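User: Structure tokens for both sequences below?

Assistant:
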Amino acid sequence: MQIQINTGDSVEGREALFRHTETVVKDALGRFADHVTRVEVHLSDVNGQKAGDNDKRVLMEARVAGRQPIAVTELAGSLHQAIEGATQKLKRSLDTTLGKLGDKRRIPAPPLPGDSALPEDDEA
């Protein structure tokens, strides 16, 4: 799973922030590595240089093999909080999407009413 990190003009692209983002994403989404080819992370400050509450924005998009991309957004007071929040949203979304795929492939449909799940014993 490749992780690509992009920053807006008003976000300093410090190496520590990139390492933090990469660690959080890998720890949370590592179990999806067989299905997710790339995660794109976009870090931005919606107010630019102005101060404001919940003005740090993180957009994450997971590229899932054979599926449409899954995208989530989180706004928070700091980039670290927004990264954590977006990662958890993406994890839940991948759980739902990939869990449904797994359910279709592994779990047989329940028997219809009137059908017996087990063969009946013949009484003679």
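Moving on to the next sequence.
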Amino acid sequence: MWQLKWQTDFPESAPLGSFSGCDNYDRTPAAFCSGLPASLKSQWWAYPTGWPDTATEGHLRLGGYYDPARTISISDGQMHIRMFRGADPIHSATVVPKAGIGLMYGKYVERFRVSDPESSTGYKSSHLLWPTTEPLTYEVDYPEGEWDSGFCVHVHSVSEGNATKNVCPATGATFATWTTTEVEWWPGNLAFYLNGTELYHLTGKWVPDQPMSWIIQNETALNGEIAPENSSAQLNISYVAVYTYAGKKS
């Protein structure tokens, strides 16, 4: 069913400042961050400095701008995504595994935890599959949620009348504990897993039928929470894997 394309448990370090020079070949397999060493440059891209996050694009009370050189680092077998705010907008962070760019079907796995949930108000994640070709008819978000809470599945489909399916399973899982999530996408099917247990399964017109890219997006909260001035919060990721679809599965 699935063939491993790429995985990492972050054996190589990259200090703050390494994710720089990222405005290259936007969201294509040729994208890179020039500040990374060659081995990591072939694996990762990040949204470049100055791009607005979703809250900024939506003209919310508080928004953010992507700032990879000051928010993303790798050490001690983990990727660290530390978003922060001074008196101004939030410094947001989105990383893109290059192995997950532009696939038609796949399996996407990550293990993560917010290290300081008590101070994470106003920060969120929306890890997603996003189309690489137009028209932009689908969006698949999981895990999505504010860092001081649990997380949900959000799937948008133009083919279903431009509707969105929102599901927040009552699992008790939050960003505060180490969690493994998986998204499986194969012809006519989307399945979402939490620590090895299937949470939700969609079929039919909810399922993308165009190439998608896996994007690990982290940004300003959209639920009205406001990150205090001079605050910060950190997401740690210990494992990431991308699988391609090898056929079959009922």
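User: Anything stand out in the second?

Assistant: The mean pLDDT is 94.
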